[in-house]
Amino acid sequence: MNTASNTASARNTVATNGNWLAKLRALAMHALNLHLQNCAVIAEAHRRPQ
Q: Where on the tree of life does the source sit, at the highest rank (predicted)?
């Protein structure tokens, strides 16, 4: 690879490394929302009489 593409690659890596916590937080929030929705479905199923 030439120097120009190495420099561009390094800049992209720095931007990605600076943003990984935000991506991780978004993923964790999405997982939490799915978990809470699942819990709500299970609670509703147990609440209903058979």
A: Bacteria
Rounded CA separation 15/11 (Å):
6
pTM of full prediction above 0.90: no
How wide is the angle at C-alpha 30 spanned by C-alphas 20 and 10, nearest 5°?
A: 15
If the chain, 50 residues long, is cut into consecutive pieces of 10 residues, what is the mean pLDDT of each piece? 57 67 96 98 89
User: Can you give the residue ranges of every domain in the chain?
Assistant: 20-50
Other C-beta atoms within 10 Å of 32: how many?
10
- What's the pLDDT at 26? 97
Please state, in angstroms and rounded to a whole number, the distance separating the CA atoms of residues 31 and 24: 10
